[in-house]
Amino acid sequence: MESLILSLLIFFPLLGAILVALVPSNQHSTIKGVSLIVSIITMILSFAVYSWFDEVATGMQFEVNYSWVTSLGINYHLGIDGISLLLLVLTTILTVLCIISSWNSVTKGVKGYFVSMLLLSTGMLGVFCALDLFLFYVFWEVMLVPMYFLIGVWGGPRRVYAAIKFVLFTMFGSLLMLVALLYIYFQYQAFSGEYTFDLLKIMGMPIANQAQLWLFGAFALAFAIKVPLWPLHTWLPDAHVQAPTAGSVILAGVLLKMGTYGFIRICLPLFPDATITYMPWICVLAIIAIIYGALVSMVQKDIKSLVAFSSVSHMGFVMLGLFALNMQGMQGAVLQMINHGVSTGALFLIVGMIYERRHTRMIADFGGIAKVMPVFSAFFMIVTLSSIGLPFTNGFVGEFLILLGAFKANYIYGVVAASGVILAACYMLWMYQRVIFGRVTHEENKKLTDLTGREKLVLIPLVILIFWIGIYPKPFLRRIEPAVKVVLSQVSRASTVQLNEKFELEPVPVYGETGEVLEKTLTDNTGANR
Amino acid sequence: MVPVSAYLILAVVLFGIGAIGVLTSRNMIVLFMCIELMLNAANLAMVAFSRALNVVDGHVIVFLVLTVAAAEAAVGLAMIITIFRNRETINIDRYSILKW
Amino acid sequence: MSEYLFLIPLLPLIGFLINGLLLGRLPRPVITIIACGSVALSLILSVMLFVELKSLPVDSRVIEQTLLPWISSGDFSVNIGFLLDPLSAVMILVVTGVGFLIHVYSVGYMAHDPGYGRFFAYLNLFTFAMLTLVLADNYLLMFVGWEGVGLCSYLLIGFWYHKKSASDAGKKAFIVNRIGDFGFLIGLFIIFWNVGSLEFDVVMKQAPLVFAAGGALITTACLMLFLGATGKSAQIPLYVWLPDAMEGPTPVSALIHAATMVTAGVYMIARSSSLFVLAPDALMVIAIIGACTALFAATIGLAQNDIKRVLAYSTVSQLGYMFLACGVAAFSAGIFHLMTHAFFKALLFLGAGSVIHAMSDEQDMRNMGGLKKHLPITFMTMFVATLAISGIPGFSGFFSKDEILWKAFSSDHGHVIFWVIGVATAGLTAFYMFRLIYLTFYGNERMSDEAKHHLHESPKSMTVPLMVLAVLSLVGGLVGMPHIFGVTNYFEEWLGPVMAGAHEPVSHALASGGGDASMEWLLMGLSVALVAVCIFLAYYFYRKNLKATTSLAEKLSGLRTLLVNKYYVDEVYGALVVRPTVYFSVFLWKIIDVIVIDGCINGMARLGGDISDTLRHSQSGRLRNYATIFAAGVVVLVAYFVFG
Amino acid sequence: MNLDTVIFFAAAVVAVFGATMMIAQKNPIASALYLILSLVAQAILYVQLGGLFLGSILIVVYAGAIMVLFLFVIMLLNLRSSDDLGPPPPALGRFTKYAFGILLSVELIVIVKAARMPSKATGVLGFPVEDFGSVKAVSTQMFTTYVYPLELTGILMLIAVVGAVVIAKKENNAQVSDDSGSDRPAKKQVS
Description:
The complex is a heterotetramer. Chain B is mainly α.
């Protein structure tokens, strides 16, 4: 059971999608019901994974490794560590909430919508579990398709532009990634005589410095577009604004994380030298993203694009944390990935709720909502505070650790990035004030109804998570820690290590069955810079 | 004593004339006939080789080519008739709807 | 007993949760009982723990309690834990004591407000955050309280959110505080990466070992922490939010913006005294900023007509006093003034609230006057507070202010200029406070007839806290009488164990003996004399001879305009910081994002499209053209493969 | 100059002449007739190369059946001359087209000249091989070694016949014409 659970987790939504596809198109409630049940079961499966996960063990767990395309050395290799684990759980939870939230808001093409949601779920879960680069790539591209339809079919007025922009951006990056992937594939063959896409095996291969720089660049471009790192972010506001609520939630909550996840899973361990070389550049870009995203979001007129630009800012924090290359920064970054999923997801849900009522997202169309929708305002307030990183909410823990780490890496990074915290308060509170406070100036707003039970049901789990991570983040941090240690030890393989703390290569990368191979290659090839 | 290369050169010349016909002819039926000519030029080369190598396989192939040419002529002419019915011309340059 | 320490902050939190989650569903008496009861229980617990702490031997007066691990990552780890030592004991007494009184006062003040439950929920949340701030045993948890009180301040300033000015003020407060918090965070980072911990006891013990005294590192750290303090405690250059914060309900102004939250910066610096004594340069900056703020705010206070704004600038000024004390390393004097200030300033605000309540929400002093006979209790208590803040001997303010002035003069870090500024501020304070009293309670009744008709003394729930605070203002200073009075300064002694270098100035003063004592008498006399003169001037201008005021005002109209407009600081900030930021943001969005980046990307897409558009014309649809190209291809390929 | 050479050159000249005239003629009927002429000359060459069977087939099937079909179609469509083809295309385009055709031929001739031909190929009629190219010889091969291609060709033929009928069939009902593409210009039925 334990070895099967990941496959089950990944493919159960796919099964559900097929099941939903078999339901006649006009039976809306059946379609919704089946989708909801499938997503809930998936969520329960992810909880099972969470509870069976050994929080102190180093390396991958629940590994399965079957040959898929034997002649090309492509394996069906799955496995998770603490980082993937949290992202899996986040994904399944957000999927459930999205399905509940789109209960009434989707009226046309209901079947296609829910099939897309479930397919998307499979793609995302697959990306977080895949340990074979080819498998990773497959899932990476698979999830693009349903997202394209979610934006392009159920989106706003400029949905086609947004969807195409989203797909072209991502494809542009992922094709370069494919090239780099093939290069690595052939390099590994030249190195060990075996054709394989297995990430864990490839991690043992030393790559020449120059090649690392190019490969890192290719992978980083693909991931940076997803993150999105400034200046590759312009697809994000369009996609977010045009996407339906659930699409925005998944986009912000999970898809963006795939970029940072790619960095931490592939870029850092595979190309340690390039990581060190590029670190200042990426940190600077991340800081620009933090400030830039915050400033631009301050002057947005549309709530959704405001949140979208705030995502740019927040993901800048994550990137900064990752490339601080120390324990605090990286742990903070991983936690912030979760946090951002929770709080920005909640923000998009909230915007969606009010959009459903008013069919506008312009800040100027609101004002005085607190009077008519007190419960809504309270939820909005909590989520806003979490987004600006108030202590005892989740945002604080992540941002604090990131800034702590960044400050250690280079105090200038820490200082400049911390100013983003000020700006976060500016744009979020200004928006909150204009939407919630003041007098009710528009007649339509006087008739707004407060949250329904279903909507509260969607928001309450997120609020619980917000406070849980904020007040007692230990369970999460403890699960992240071994995984981050492994990544750091991989990075410290770099021939030009400049980390403040050197992570010793104890037999750390004990990656299940492939562990021996890895260790062997490591000891055989230390310092062999071809 | 005619060398086999003479037959081949003749085949090439016929083929070239056919090709020029295909390129220059604006009448669809003439164009079609040029294609037939090119096919037959190839057939001639085949027969010449067959003779030179003293094997009869080339003949079989020529036979098959003739058959296929017949089939092609049948279908092609049928299409010409249909197209002509729609447009009342057999000027091939007018059939440029499949552009851009 | 000590194991119940965590209940002190927790009780108000529970109160908040009950009132907050059952938003407005409870009947008002229940809300009242929950809100006031929780704070009252905290107060009782605080007193009991204070007694317990006092019973411990002087050197071991520390009660610690760790609740649960909070954040840990690599070698960074922080717990949620509480620390009760003499310093925090004073603070929790002030917070719960004044807080409880203000809760009670609010019952009457907010009685007719539709947001009654919400108000008390926020108030309880604030009490929780403030108690967390003062009880925290590490910097990060202190930061939690620090931000928490900022949040509550935001919520409470903007309590009447339908007023744009209120929500604007709330937002401004939060953002300005955030600027300070930014400094606080940087300070924390420097401390952590050098000391390796954020626990107070570790930091205080390790700091002298890891930081070179007077070094750049510790100076930066201290200045960054102080930046945090300027935000929270409204010092130059970040004081601008506090006057605007008067948009909030008056009890809020009393609790948050006078008695407790704004003093958090002073508390933090006193708490970090071991660090600050290592950075004399930082101390000097603090002293200068404190002194300047004190004088600067006092001058603005002279010309304000809104009763609450006068008090707000007075608060800024008094906070400057406390920082002046901290800046001359007289931390316990700062805390002492913090405490007495909490009493009399809370009293002043509550009294002003009582006036406003009676005047049907009129705040402009030009429309008041002659209220003495209508509001006797309010007048009496406010008068006591005015005497206290002016530093009339015998009242609490006198002792604390005098101690600060003396330390500013005598301390190793002090200077005679600090003393001069301090005394000048004291004089100005006395002047504008008596101006307030005269304009409000004496003279003609300038209010409209309708307002006059509604005049009434406030209900018991409001006057009783006033009276209690008046008593405290009267006697609160007795715990810290100067040595020259021949009595022990209990307050300084009590704080002694936690204050770095606390003994040093004292011993210095004692060692220098009678010469200094006579100097102290002299200085005290000078300051009291100046205060008396200023009170007389206020009497002359605002009671006796109002014509002189107007003629004077006309003569000094330029200065007056400057003061009324608060030196145009808000406008300058708006022009130099806020508007450029917004314009720059719009530039980034409209130009960089939309035109440059998106332009590049859409341009690339358009380029591809244009190229395809050109190329597609080669697809003429003419069969013979295709055939020609095909033939050309064959020719070229044959040429390449056969002859090439 | 033996008979072989004379026959070859005579047939070759006729074949080339027929082909050239075919593309030079404006009237499609004349073109078709010249093509028949060329094909007959080629059939003679087949026979000279020992392909008696194939030569017969070429005349019967090609010159006979297929070209009749062409003529039939030309007449069915009532095409007399090419004056309805409009003005000729620009000279440059025509020139390139000739150039490519000639270039292609030249290249192929160079290849043929450069290639080493089988030695037996010197005499064609001089080496009469018994039974070469007879019906028996060809059909033996056809029905043994090449039986599958033959069968496939047969099927192809069948499909072509059916297809030709379907394509050429007049569209009688409006439904079909609706389905067969709305972007075509309005259809003018020729009866």
